[in-house]
Design a protein that fits this description.
6-stranded antiparallel β-barrel, 5 helices, elongated
């Protein structure tokens, strides 16, 4: 206590100075309209900056969740749009029936949001790692997509991480694709080099299409549903044997900045896989 009194006694003139400064400031801004308005304007600006900083900090910490929600929403919207295009041909049916069929189709799929934690572009056989694994419901051979289109297929799974074979894998990636609203299909293949371009091969020679049309997943495999964007047709070439087309496609997914993805869990995939395996076993048995 004595030390405190000694401290106050030694520096009392500084405390008196601060008290007088505060009192004079209050009197200046309270009893003079001009100075008061200047003070209010400055205080409002300061408070506004504080609120802006708080908002930026809040947005930063919620940015990841927002990206996940947008990715899932974009995927659902693309799926609904693809279904509506397909069902438009059947427009003579009533709207209630169309909505029921769309909801029934989408109910087959569960989307598992994930983030890309490792990715490569400069190799012939690129791989991608995401931060979700078997503990989150991810399984081998599940499709992976983002809000802009196809990404790849799950290859290896651990408890909390998965390795994905992306489209940009020259040796292992072959995804069944179709020309939108045309029905002609082929297989997507990347040859290396430019990460923005891939090729759809084995498109039937009698196919009719135009440059600039969209290519999307065909839905003929048990990995991807139909209607997920792949890219736009830029050029068409004849195959070496002249029996089919090879289409140069500008990919809709920018693999250089893909961060948020969804793993597509198809409830009916297990049943189709079991049926296909049973068919293969049956064929092998008959050949023996």
């Amino acid at each position: 206590m004595r030390n405190l009194l000694d401290f106050l006694k030694e520096y009392h003139h500084w405390f008196l100075f601060l008290l007088l400064e505060v009192a004079s400031g209050v009197m200046l801004f309270q009893y003079n309209s001009y100075q008061g308005s200047v003070w209010l304007s400055s205080a409002s600006g300061l408070v506004g900056k504080v609120y802006e900083l708080e908002s930026n900090v809040f947005s930063y910490f919620h940015y990841g969740r927002l990206n996940e929600e947008l990715t899932s929403r974009n995927f659902h919207l693309e799926r609904q749009l693809a279904q509506l295009r397909r069902l438009y041909v059947e427009a003579k049916q009533d709207t209630t029936d169309l909505e029921r069929r769309e909801l029934q189709f989408l109910s087959q799929f569960q989307l598992i949001p994930a983030k890309v934690v490792d990715n490569s572009l400069n190799k012939a056989d690129n791989l991608m790692t995401i931060d979700k694994g078997s503990a989150d419901g991810v399984e081998v051979d599940m499709g992976v997509a983002c809000g802009n289109g196809v990404v790849g297929v799950v290859y290896l799974v651990s408890d909390h991480y998965s390795v994905v074979i992306p489209v940009l894998n020259a040796s292992s990636s072959r995804i069944s694709c179709a020309i939108r609203n045309r029905g002609y299909f082929g297989y997507l293949h990347w040859y290396g080099g430019d990460p923005t371009v891939a090729y759809v091969e084995d498109v039937p020679r009698h196919a009719r299409f135009s440059l600039g049309e969209w290519v999307e997943t065909s839905g003929f495999s048990s990995i991807f549903p139909s209607g997920i964007l792949v890219g736009k047709i830029e050029q068409a070439y004849n195959s070496k044997d002249g029996l089919s087309y090879k289409l140069k496609v500008r990919l809709s997914t920018d693999f250089s900045c893909v961060r948020d993805v969804v793993v597509i869990s198809d409830k009916s995939m297990a049943e189709r896989t079991r049926l296909m395996e049973a068919a293969k076993d049956s064929i092998s048995f008959r050949q023996k």
